[in-house]
């Protein structure tokens, strides 16, 4: 886990609900159990400031960093998908986006990565589809200064064919099976009397591995998934263990935040 990814996880999983800010010293202390050194933390936060994810702030404890509105939207979107409660209902319609052409390659690749994160798949260079509208889409298009026509669309035909063309469910399912096997091994290696720092580190690695599915799995409704979808068993395990380890991990954060 690199420092930048660990910071996103830390802010999203713990600091967002604690005001979304922390001193530099606290960030260094909180990432130490993940074997991330202080210079790497400082380099990562500087990069995140340049990318408008964090703002420099003065705190009673010293210099620190707070999430920006852009970061808050991304963390809230991620949290809804990571810790979703209940069954997602789907009205049988698709959210279709037709973008204006983007000529600059770096901008085009950045836009592609962000749309995939929001659960969309490309049907062509400029046409994207998702099972629902993302609340973060407006801000993304405004930030990138890109015009898009958006449609609430009904498909004429078999939705399973569309899903198979847009997303590689076999690869996503195999990734869930690998994650579950690794997660069981990770949790199984945690002693019953483990200190708070170790519990925090293990839970952080659990959440980080699960968060990576936000870049692969669009969160399709059950009726569009194959029978015995591995993602459901993996989610049940994640929900159980993330909740079980949260009190000790949160206590560690509280002890080291100030």
Provide an overview of this structure.
This protein has 258 residues and is of the alpha+beta class. The chain folds into three domains: 70 residues, Winged helix-like DNA-binding domain superfamily/Winged helix DNA-binding domain (Arc Repressor Mutant, subunit A, Orthogonal Bundle); 61 residues, Alpha-Beta Plaits, CATH 3.30.70; 89 residues, no CATH class. 55% of the residues lie in helices and 13% in strands. The chain has ten helices and seven strands. The strands form two sheets. The protein has a four-stranded antiparallel sheet, covered by helices on one side. The chain has a three-stranded antiparallel sheet with strand order 1-3-2. A hairpin with a 2-residue loop joins strand 2 and strand 3. Helix 1 packs across helix 9, helix 2 packs across helix 10 and helix 8 runs antiparallel to helix 9. The longest helix has 28 residues. The protein is globular and about 55 Å long. 26% of the residues are buried.
List keywords for this structure.
alpha+beta; 10 helices; 7 strands; three-stranded antiparallel sheet; Alpha-Beta Plaits; Arc Repressor Mutant, subunit A; four-stranded antiparallel sheet; 13% strand; 3 domains; globular; 258 residues
Quick gist of this model?
This protein is of the alpha+beta class. It is built from ten helices and seven strands. It is globular.
Layout of strands and helices, then pairs:
Elements (H helix, E strand, L loop, with lengths): L2 H13 L5 E3 H8 L6 H13 L3 E6 L2 E6 L1 H14 L11 E6 L5 H13 L3 E2 L4 E4 L6 H8 L3 E6 L5 H8 L2 H20 L7 H16 L18 H28 L1
Antiparallel strand pairs: 1-3, 2-3, 4-6, 4-7, 5-6
